[in-house]
Specification:
The chain is an all-alpha fold and about 140 residues long. It has a domain of about 80 residues. The longest helix has about 35 residues. About 20% of the residues are buried.
Amino acid sequence: MLKAKSSKIAALLLSHWANDGYVVVLPPLLVVFSPEFGFTTIQAAQIMSVYSIASAVGQLPISLLGDYLGRPRDTLAAGVFLLSLALLGWGWSTGYQLLLFFTFLAGLGFSGYHPISMNLMTHGRPGSFAGRLPAAGLLL
């Protein structure tokens, strides 16, 4: 039983690393894309803004969808998959509008991870654990 819980936590940690790792990749990629596509500083900022807005707006509906479907793990995996495909789309982008589209999809893919993963981490744990886990994350 303990091994099964540990493997679930390890899978969540690995997927969390990948999910948040993608966010770290975006700004350096903009440094490469901006001169190649002739983006202004405003356009580069708009790309990051679209990502942030899509991820903020998508958190509640996507996490509710995971709860409604009763398949939070599948919803979480679909979000990471969408994020991965969207970032592949960055490589295929031929202009600003297409890059904005893939950036929006990446933001949506990113958005569901944190609410759903917290649900999975605290599910079936004692009540005090559910409060200590986010507090421990703040200390790190």
